[in-house]
Amino acid sequence: MDGTAHAAPAAAPREGRRPRDLRADVFRGLALWFIFIDHIPDNWLGHATLRNAALCDATEVFVLLAGYAGGIAYGATLDRDGWLFAAAQVVRRVGSLYVAHIVLFVMFTAQVGYSAAALEGAIYIDELHLDAFGEQPYRALLEALLLRFQPAFLNILPLYVLLLLQFAVVLPLLRRPRLLLGLSLALYAATRLLGLELPTWTGGGWFFNPGAWQLLFVIGALIGYRPPGGAGAPLRLPWRRWAGWLAAAWLSLGFALLFLAWHRPDLGQAAPRWFVALLTEVDKTGLHPFRLISVLALTYLLAHAVPAGTPWLRGALARPFLLMGQQGLPVFCSGILFSFFGRLALEYNDRVIMQVAVNAAGLFCLASVAWLSGWYKQRERARRMQPEPIPPGRPA
């Protein structure tokens, strides 16, 4: 999200720090809402999310922006305090993500299991790949702790954990962007060409193959990192009209593929067979190059179309997404639980009123979680900054 040709600073830096890029927060919040929407079957609003308009979806946006934020935060720590301290900060973040994942696993399993038992004949257990937990609960808990048991919807945080652990190791290579990008590309190519994968307990590999998805994270980190001295990002994205046209053309091609294959299959039958067949090859597990190019093309256009100081980023309409993007972890975890409640509601009644109520309530609840989390962190930060009171009788 460089936007060097158009962007202006959002605010003056404080204490030498870079101003926060509100674009990243807003678009991350929007991606989290899309994830909530897409996790609800038969949600009409799901037809308006990114996955129906491009050969990528909110997951790619989430990972790219995670890398972008990591490049900003941990890159600055690397330059200020050195590799060891920066890596320690990354590992501490990994610990928070790991604990959040385990708590979410327990809560989601209890939520789905209770619902399946209460609604006789419900297929939630099999559909969400929790049947192994019912058959071997103790072994399933152990495998969940080892990140080798990943039911549906519980596979993004394990990916994030591994990406950050890898990032802690390669942090110094942010200063050598060509080498880091080359190594990342080599791992991506080897993963796809050789079929490398991490095994899971229930068979097969991880739904999100870390060997492939790390490339998107690394690209985001290189875009976000700024070397000392105020130099530009190692991976610069200056505006070029020809590049903008190429990005727009690529996204248009992706939309045409989706339109012919999903929205108007009757027209797709008249298109060349090879054209529509392309869509069947675009896998998400290994981050197919089409998906990678699509999210990068979208990022390129948005980074230049939306300057960093755009007023609407601080406006009322963007406010819920801004809060959600700034508190991504609690919002993501609560969104997984809320989306299942939304599914139950739409299975009971999927008419227009319920559709509107589910999506509006979901956005309100996610924004409320974000506000509460932000409010608590702000109060806790203010409390730590206050001087300790002097006990009576002790000289000041």
From TrEMBL:
<dbReference type="InterPro" id="IPR014550">
    <property type="entry name" value="UCP028704_OpgC"/>
</dbReference>
<feature type="transmembrane region" description="Helical">
    <location>
        <begin position="179"/>
        <end position="195"/>
    </location>
</feature>
<feature type="transmembrane region" description="Helical">
    <location>
        <begin position="152"/>
        <end position="174"/>
    </location>
</feature>
<keyword id="KW-0812">Transmembrane</keyword>
<feature type="transmembrane region" description="Helical">
    <location>
        <begin position="207"/>
        <end position="225"/>
    </location>
</feature>
<feature type="transmembrane region" description="Helical">
    <location>
        <begin position="290"/>
        <end position="309"/>
    </location>
</feature>
<keyword id="KW-1133">Transmembrane helix</keyword>
<feature type="transmembrane region" description="Helical">
    <location>
        <begin position="245"/>
        <end position="263"/>
    </location>
</feature>
<protein>
    <submittedName>
        <fullName>OpgC family protein</fullName>
    </submittedName>
</protein>
<dbReference type="Pfam" id="PF10129">
    <property type="entry name" value="OpgC_C"/>
</dbReference>
<keyword id="KW-0472">Membrane</keyword>
<feature type="transmembrane region" description="Helical">
    <location>
        <begin position="352"/>
        <end position="376"/>
    </location>
</feature>
<feature type="transmembrane region" description="Helical">
    <location>
        <begin position="321"/>
        <end position="346"/>
    </location>
</feature>
<feature type="transmembrane region" description="Helical">
    <location>
        <begin position="102"/>
        <end position="125"/>
    </location>
</feature>
